[in-house]
Structure formats: C-alpha cells, structure tokens
Amino acid sequence: MVDTIYVENAINDHTRTALVLDRYPKAEVVGLEHYGEVFNSSKQNFRLQKHNPSLILAAKGGKRVMPTPAQYETGGGAHYYFSHMLNCVYDCRYCFLQGMLRSANYLLFVNYEDFMQDIRSVAEQHKGDDKPVWFFSGYDCDSLAYEPVTGFAEYFIHQFQHIDNAVLELRTKSTQIRSLLNTEPQDNVVVAYSLSPESIVSAVEKGAPPLSKRIEALKRLQDHGWRIGLRFDPIVWHADYLQDYEEAIPQVFESLKPDAIDSVTLGGFRLPKGFYKTMHNLHPEHWLFNAGLTEEEGMVVYRQDIEEQALKSVGELCERYVDERRVFAYSSFNAKEAEASGGM
Ligand code: SF4
Ligand 1 in contact with 246 (CB < 6 A)? Predict the structure, then answer.
C-alpha cells in the first residue's frame, strides 16, 4: 500500500504517470520540481521509511545506460545495466541499497522511451561484435517485483524484439510472472533468478518469496519457453552454509531442465567500505556483518580462503548438473572492478 505519491511536474501528463496513479486512487498526490527534493533529503531514516515507503514518479535524465562491473559476465558480449527504479519491495539484509541511499522510498522513472532510445544507441555501437550486447535490469531494484504497477517487463521485452544484437536480462527474486506467461517467449530475453537456500531466505531476505516459490516460477517460465538463468549471488557464508547449499542445489536443478539453463553465476558477499559502515551501524550485532569478513581494495568481502572455498564448493555442486562453461564465478580477489552484492 502506498499512501503518498510524489510526481515531478514535468511528467504530470505522462501516460505512465496516469496508469500508476490509477492503481492508487486513495493516495495523496504531491507535486515537486525534482525528485531529489524528497529522495535525496538528508532528514530521512532508511529503516523507518522502509516500513511505509512513498512512491516518487520522475523522469531519468543524464546517463541512463552504464557499463557493468566485471562480475556480471554471463557468456555474452559487452555488458551494460540500467535502472528504471531505485529501491525494492523486498528487504534483504545484505542489499547495498540501504548503504547507498538515504531514502527507502520507491523512485520510479517513467520515461521508459528515453531508456530504450539509449539502449538502441548503445546496441548500435556494438553492431559488429561477435556476441550480443547484454543489458541487465534489476541492479537497483527487483526487475519484476513491482511489475503490476510499473509494467516494466511488458514494455521492455516488447521493445527488445526489435534489437537483433542485444539481450535483456531481467534479474529478480519475484514470482510476478503473469505478464511473461502471457507473452510469446523471446530468444533475446533471459529471466535470471537470485537464489539462496531456504534458511538464508528466511534469515536475511525479508519479504522475498521462499526458494520453493522461486523454483516454481522458474519452472513455469522454462516450460513456457523463456531462457532462464540462475544466480547464487551472494552466496551467504556461515558455519553450516555448505549443508544448506547441498540441499538447495539439487532442489533447484532437479526441478528444471538443466540443459536448457542459460547460465549460472556465483559471487560472495561484498560491499564498498562506506556502504558496509552504514549497514553495520544499522545492524551492529547482525552475524552477516560480523562473520568472516575482510577489506580488499576499498571493499568489505569474505576472507579469501572463505570466498574461494564457497565459490569452489557451490560451483562444483552446480557443475553436477550443467557444463562448467556455463558456470561463472566472480572472485573479489582478482576483480578489476568491484561492485556491491544485493541489488540484482
Ligand atoms: S537484494 Fe535485490 S531483492 Fe533484495 S532488497 Fe535488494 S534489490 Fe531487492
């Protein structure tokens, strides 16, 4: 439920603004010049706002499509990401958004057409590449969790039909897949699920669907003909983590057609030091921020021995089902660039 919706004056007449407002007839609507007046205000408390976030509708200016850090390798060509939304309906304890943003309000950029124009132009620059250029969504939000309100996937999937050298990856934990099941599958769209063992979901992925529901959604999508990807990222380490993954991984792969899985990626917990400090201050006692961590080039990550062991063990469990060439592990210790865990 959203009680207050802020709307930038410039997009008052945008069709998508009207569609979103129609979903919340009882919400108070407040006009503003620029979303930053509310979203970037210093007098906010992320944790308090998270209990009852407002919605902000705005237009994204400036750079809308960015190159991704190295860890998003999935076997495609050049990699980019874009964010039509900042913040998320779920509340994962490891999510970097709570360390990066002052506000927990949902900021939705309604100018999808401008995003598409930039995506087309980037794809055009890669016309001669051997492999298709990959565009990730869901870095600063969950790609599908707010779909009934945003119509995001429905719009972008349709638009990608017309770009023959590009792939759209929708990264999600959500079971909001109705629009995908009502759509003819497209070869250049991958629906990639972030997965964790059930014990991790209940401990640190508040509000997100249980593993069993994500598997069910993956299965329905795969049966419908969509390309699917699996993302064990972050692998959350604790004393019995391997036992948890030994249970979860067969549960995942044995419910699906492993040969038709597009790619599997693995990564450890990682946060820029500044984000980590903010998050640690919010939850000083939480085991997630106190177990097995070290600092590496400005990032807080698992100790090298822990990360190596986790990537190796979980990777080997996955390779029982899919060819190792489709399993991509991201190491914090030989990365040229680093980014935070969570988000996607
Ligand atoms: S990690 Fe992903 S699903 Fe979890 S709160 Fe962050 S954006 Fe949402």
Answer: no
* pLDDT tens digits for range 122-175: 999 999 999 999 999 988 999 999 999 999 999 999 999 999 999 999 999 999
Q: How many residues does the chain have?
A: 344
* Pairing mode, strands 227-235 and 189-194: parallel
Is-contact 173 208, C-beta < 8 A?
A: yes
pLDDT at 336: 47
Residue 70: pLDDT band (50, 70, 90) is low
- With a 6 Å cutoff on the Cβ, whether 90 touches ligand 1 is yes
Across the chain, the runs of DSSP E, i.e. the strands, are 4-8, 28-32, 55-58, 66-67, 79-82, 85-86, 91-92, 106-109, 133-137, 166-172, 189-194, 205-206, 227-235, 261-268, 270-272, 293-296, 299-302, 327-330
What is the mean predicted confidence (pLDDT) over 325-342?
74
At 149, the amino acid letter reads: V
Q: Work out the average pLDDT over 234-263.
A: 97
Residue 337 reports pLDDT greater than 60: no
Reduce the DSSP state of residue 248 to 3 states and report it.
Answer: helix
Give, using CA atoms, the residue closest to atom 1 of ligand 1. 342
Q: Which amino acid does the sequence have at 302?
A: Y
Residues whose CB is less than 8 angstroms from the CB of residue 229 and which lie 6 or more positions away in sequence, other chains included: 74, 169, 190, 191, 192, 193, 261, 262, 263, 264, 265
Cα 88 to middle of ligand 1, angstroms: 6
CATH number of 4-330: 3.80.30.30
Which atom of ligand 1 is found nearest the CA of 140?
A: 7
CA 239 → CA 243, 307, 310, distances in Å?
A: 9, 13, 11
pTM (whole model) above 0.85: yes
Helix (H, G, I), strand (E, B) or coil at 216: helix
Higher pLDDT, 334 or 28: 28
Return the ligand 1 atom nearest residue 205 CA.
4
